What we know:
The chain is mainly β. It has 2 domains: about 5-90, Elongation Factor Tu (Ef-tu), domain 3 (Beta Barrel), CATH 2.40.30.60; about 100-160, PRC-barrel domain (SH3 type barrels, Roll). It has helices at about 75, 100-105, and strands spanning about 5-15, 20-25, 40-45, 45-50, 55-60, 60-65, 85, 110, 115-125, 130-135, 140-145, 150-155, 160. The strands form 2 sheets. It has a 7-stranded antiparallel beta sheet. A 6-stranded mixed beta sheet has the order 11-10-9-8-13-12.
Amino acid sequence: xxxxxxxxxxxxxxxxxxxxxxxxxxxxxxxxxxxxxxxxxxxxxxxxxxxxxxxxxxxxxxxxxxxxxxxxxxxxxxxxxxxxxxxxxxxxxxxxxxxxxxxxxxxxxxxxxxxxxxxxxxxxxxxxxxxxxxxxxxxxxxxxxxxxxxxxxxxxxxxxxxxxxxxx
Length: 168
């Protein structure tokens, strides 16, 4: 799967115990929500692999998981560094005006006056509001404030209209 068909939700960062459990760094909020999805689509470099999540739990500040056909420490160690994604269809539907970050990445960003600013490269979480990193002729940081900076988002068209001075 590629593009919007899959969403990266975490990374395998280590082994836990001797029975094949892995430590997981979760990008979901809250962290343990990653355990609500199965199968996981693991990837590293040009390799991909689909695995079923058998069980998982929060262990202190980390998440640990047991995956199908991973039953010893050596097998678990072989998965360290692999990225974890899930099929986009596994995610809950968003309400009107809500978006997954993965859906915003890649959108064309255009001012109300039709000036092309570039594409959303990634987002940054801040205490006050999220920030879009838009790359075009140069990199711009735009606050993700719907109804203020963000005028409209059309996922079907792959376009976002913003109220932003192109010189800024």
